[in-house]
């Protein structure tokens, strides 16, 4: 029984007769193999990566498990089509808060076609990719049973200035996001989601150490997903904060150089998260002191 | 008594009636203030940086000391012109080996003019900036009293692939560079120049830690100079390996974001230097084992 993934926040989406990924009940995610180079390139990456003995386990856990390819009925009704069979990353999650962050100030590889380069360059310049080294590609923030999810229009997230990106990353780990989005986020779950020895920051730093060293792959235009369960955080339990890397249609070989483009964006993201952890109420206390409360 | 700097390896150079920097005997370096935005921007940077109390001393030492501006006779005979007065970085050096490395895979700031952006982007794509995150802008390697300096054509250094850049960075710290440039470099001084607690790698890592944190400036199109005295190394003395940052005509404000573009290139450079330290004879032993020597 295939269905449309309930928690996809970016990328092509199935539904309304469109082609997009599907999930089954056994925890597998079926991603249509794009007909052009992108499809064959992503398959090439998964095939190489999943059999690469030089990937340490503490790094491979950041990637979806790859189960090969399979012909299944495409979501757009166009018949049997080849799909990548991957781990469904939302398995076991009830009401996940998810943000999709497209990494790198440059989303194109040097050897891409001129047309593709110009298209990407234009988008990188129009969005926050160029100034920030990454852009928010999509987000859903769980509020509570009544409010459900806050899931803003994807394009509205892509070109925010630094201060607003920081605000979104604060809202992402706040308890007061559902009722009034103009409220200063309280960052109630910053310490438990972003912080701690197994939190998001630790995971990003683990990934950074690998990127400072590995010269096997350059990950153009791929995304980091950050996920956690606000429900668990509200109950005082470990919210299961987790990062995953996805979307490998533009991965190329490293050729004796580290992926400085991805790494630069990763360091920038790490700085945002670190600052939120260090001064979660920075803006609030500024307001308070202006009001004479402090 | 102003004269042409004897050890300049990149940038505009005085001589033959051209406009370029001059030095005096008291250790000052006079850089003509470029007439356009670049001149005023570089002056703005030096003025801001030299009075910025948030720059720790272990970082400010990587920058030339700034002594203000002065009207002096320009090197091209065009009369009195305003010059930046800076520390002459070659003071006290006898036969310095120097490499000038232009940092960042992108040498243009987002707000530059469209014409300038297109010019830089073209050059970044044609050189090793895009793939490597930096490009070699100029180099001089001291051989010995007889051979003098190896100082290849600057443009020949800018678009080398990773393996050749690595070879140049090996030659830079080798004793056998002067006689036969086709010889595998012996990396005789790698440990004393690149390695050690005060060596080049340590300095680069110190700089990296600052770039992971600082959000004051973004250093587009600036260079890292690496310098040392081979003569001292040959005598078994400390070769005085030193890095300096120069050329700030395209520095802009950080606006709440780290300089991920410079940082990415810096991490890439650090990886090259680390690899040379870890496996200085990598290529040689490969050759040896092919020849059955090992």
Automatic annotation (TrEMBL), chains A, B:
Its EC number is 2.7.1.140, 2.7.1.151. It catalyses: 1D-myo-inositol 1,3,4,6-tetrakisphosphate + ATP = 1D-myo-inositol 1,3,4,5,6-pentakisphosphate + ADP + H(+); 1D-myo-inositol 1,4,5-trisphosphate + 2 ATP = 1D-myo-inositol 1,3,4,5,6-pentakisphosphate + 2 ADP + 2 H(+). Residues 1-22 are annotated as: Disordered. One of its GO terms (molecular function) is ATP binding. Transmembrane segments: none annotated. It holds the Pfam family IPK. GO terms for biological process: inositol phosphate biosynthetic process. GO terms for cellular component: cytoplasm; nucleus. Keywords: ATP-binding, Kinase, Nucleotide-binding, Transferase. Inositol phosphate kinase with a broad substrate specificity. Belongs to the inositol phosphokinase (IPK) family. This is Inositol polyphosphate multikinase. It comes from Solanum tuberosum.
């Amino acid at each position: 029984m295939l269905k449309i993934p309930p928690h996809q926040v970016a990328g092509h989406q199935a539904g309304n007769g469109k082609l997009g990924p599907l999930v089954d009940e056994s925890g597998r995610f079926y991603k249509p193999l794009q007909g052009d180079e992108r499809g064959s390139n992503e398959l090439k990456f998964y095939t190489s990566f999943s059999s690469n003995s030089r990937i340490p386990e503490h790094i491979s856990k950041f990637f979806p498990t790859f189960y090969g390819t399979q012909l299944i009925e495409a979501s757009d009704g166009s018949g049997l089509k080849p799909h990548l069979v991957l781990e469904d990353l939302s398995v076991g999650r009830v009401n996940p808060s998810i943000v999709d962050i497209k990494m790198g100030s440059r989303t194109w590889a040097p050897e891409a076609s001129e047309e593709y380069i110009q298209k990407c360059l234009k988008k990188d310049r129009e969005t926050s990719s160029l100034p920030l080294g990454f852009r928010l590609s999509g987000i859903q923030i769980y509020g509570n049973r009544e409010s459900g999810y806050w899931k803003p229009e994807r394009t509205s997230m892509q070109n925010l200035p630094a201060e607003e990106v920081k605000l979104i990353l604060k809202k992402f780990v706040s308890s007061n996001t559902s009722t009034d989005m103009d409220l200063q986020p309280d960052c109630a779950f910053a310490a438990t989601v972003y912080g701690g020895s197994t939190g998001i920051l630790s995971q990003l730093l683990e990934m950074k150490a690998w990127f400072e060293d590995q010269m096997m792959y350059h990950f153009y235009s791929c995304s980091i997903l950050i996920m956690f369960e606000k429900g668990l955080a509200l109950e005082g339990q470990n919210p299961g904060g987790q990062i995953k890397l996805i979307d490998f249609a533009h991965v190329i070989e490293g050729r004796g150089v580290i992926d400085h483009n991805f790494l630069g964006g990763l360091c920038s993201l790490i700085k945002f998260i670190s600052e939120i952890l260090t001064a979660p109420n920075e803006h609030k206390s500024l307001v308070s002191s202006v009001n004479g409360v402090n």
